[in-house]
Structures are given as C-alpha cells and as structure tokens.
Amino acid sequence: MADPWLALEFGVDPAERIAQVGAAHEAFLAAGAAPHRVREVVRRSWERSARLDPEATPPIDLADDALAGYRAAHPLARVLPLFRDLLGGIAQDGAHLMAVCDAYGRLLWVEGHPGVRRHAERMNFVPGALWDERHAGTNAPGTALAVDHSVQIFATEHFSRPVQRWTCAAAPIHDPATGRLLGAVDITGGDHLANPHSLALVRATARAAEAQLATDRPVEPGVATVTALGRDEAELRVDGRRIRLGRRHSELLVLLLHHPEGRTGEQLGLDLYGDDRLHPVTLRAELSRLRRVLGPELLDSRPYRLRGTVRADFTTVSDRLDQGDPAGALDAYSGSLLPGSDAPGVTRLRRLIDGQLRAAVLAAADPALLAAWTATPAGADDLTAWQALARALPTGAPRRPLALARIDQLAGEYDLTRATWLQRS
C-alpha cells in the first residue's frame, strides 16, 4: 500500500502529476470540490484553506528584536545545532532550504544558499512569517502542524499559486515529556524533493530533536503526564509508555484530573452524559476499561480518583494563571481542551480555561501575548483581541497592517452574521 504522506508513487512522471494536480487545483478554486486523484491529505488541506486568496503571500508576524527575543526563548533553539548538523549540508548545496517553525506555523529559522533564500523571500518564506494553513494554505510545515504528522507537499499541491514552484517535506516535533507540539522542521526545494528520502530525513531529524530534548530534561520516574490541549484524544505518558486514549477515556481522565479529590459515579455520569442521559452501567464499563488501560496503581475507586503524581498541560495553564503569569500560561497552551468533546463537564472546563486565558492576555495588553493569542484557534476569530493588538502595536510595526486587515475582515463577517440572523428571525 502506498504511503499517503508521500507526494509521488514510484514510477510516476512528475511533470504529468504537476499538470494533473494543477488542473484539479483550478477546478477546486472554481467549484469548491477536488477530484479523487488528489491525495486525501491535500484535499482536506485545500478545504481548510478555501477562504484564502490563492495569490496571497503569508504575512510577516515578527521581525527584528521581537523575533530575536522570541527565537532565543523558544525550546527549539536548544536543538538548532542538531538541525544544522543533520540538514545543514542539504541547505547549503544551493538547491534546498532548511526551515524550523513554532507550533503556530511561525517560521523561526530559514537557512540555506543565499540565492535560494532570495527566491524564497518573494513568497515571504522568511523568519517571522506565518506559514500555518490559515495564513499560507497547504504547505509542508503548516499541514504537518495541522494533521500532526510528517508530510510531503509537491508543487501544485500547494494551495497558494506563488508557492507551487516549490516542493517541501516537514515533520512535527513534540515535547518529549508532555507530548505538546513545539513546531516542525522542514526542507524546501525543487521537484526532486518528491522522493521517500526527503520525508524520511525530516522524520529522523524530528525524532533526533525529541531525543535530545528528552536528554536535556529527564522524565521523572513514576510521574504521569497528560496532553489534552488542542487534540480530541488525550495522550498519557508514564514510565516511558505512551498511551493514546479514546474519546470517552480522554474525557474521563480530564474530569478526574480536574477533581483530584475524587468523583462519585453519579457525578462523573452527569459530567460525561448530562442530566437526561445518565447511563450508570455504561459508565461503570468505561471506568473498568480505563482502569485496565491505566493500571490499578493510577486509578482508584470509591470515589473514583487518580493516584500518584499526574501532571497535565491544561492544569499547567491554570496554575500559571493563578500565579499571575499569562506569558507562561500561553506558552503552555497549545489549543482548546479536547475541542471535539461535547461532554458537559469537559465543555464547561474548556470554556473556563479559554476564558481565563483570554481575559489575562487582554488585561496584560502586551503585543507579544496578544499576537500569540490571536495565532491560536481560540483567538483567531476574536475581534476584541485583534483590536487590542492593533492598539498595542506602534504605527510602523510590521504586524499592525495584518491586525487591521483582520479587524476589517472579522467586522464584516460579524455584520453579515447579524444581518443573516435578522433575516431569519
């Protein structure tokens, strides 16, 4: 079976595929639907990118001292020498670039031959630019972050036309202790990159970076960590094991973490199913299966509660907010809590965390924090936050035109929403 993350199967003519996918891209722009010959990962990315102008280039979000300070404090700065060691030779051969971005798709480093960099600058493939799918459409680093998987994007598979002369491969990088997404590493060049070796290389580089980060920060024996922000299914790490939980088990684990004092079966049932859908037999079965997954040393009963030391990314956000540290809270925040969950207890907690973090960022009125918040899925459509960002930025700041344009866009969408609602009411 072909690897769905590779752009070209063995023996496929690159020029023929470029023409086929290019025609599919034009058909998608005209009709909003992509033919089946387009890879599934690309088709879904085009759908997520559909609101973008296909001629636009990504905006530059950070520059000069602000960019230098942000890069210096980023966790991936610790493994930059490793990236240069593993990919530097490719980046200097005159045909490729090495790029590293943060979890929001913001390019941190772009290195390679000066001539190739100058060509890439024409599409704003430069440090400080936003290359997530929301700003750049389908591309390897942005799509790798969106799907949390290494991926290759070939020529006309890019959503933005100015990027279609390039081919790239990227792999996400996670914090080895918590599983939190830190960013991605990418190689970008010509059509010849559409081969299994480039994808294998960025995958190996990402794994090497995670291994080095793990060496820098050893895992504490017996301490479990839970990652539940920005993902529909939580991941548990304990004693070297990585356990990806299903949706219901993820919800139960989050609810138990939120109530360290313990929870009765009835309370858990109400948090999980709501008042009118309480199913005690189903709940007991779910808890029994969860105990088998976690082990009896982690899950106790009467009341149900977690034993030992269990840390979670969402509790870290809350703890740092309680300490008056909105910057630290935002750094630990990688998205909303189990965004696909409709369990009442999880929904309330998700709104609480997002609301408290938003309030702290707005109160701080710090341009860097406001920019980081508006780069998150929860803050992307937050008109008030964008307005606060525009007020906090100096007139000549590179981010200010982006903020003003986003304000105009959101204001127009909100007016349309109100008009539509009035017509229907």
From TrEMBL:
List, alphabetically, the InterPro entries matched.
GAF (IPR003018), GAF-like_dom_sf (IPR029016)
Q: Name one Pfam family in it.
A: GAF
Q: For the GAF domain, which residue ranges apply?
A: 118-212
Question: Which named protein is this?
Answer: GAF domain-containing protein
The source organism is Micromonospora cremea
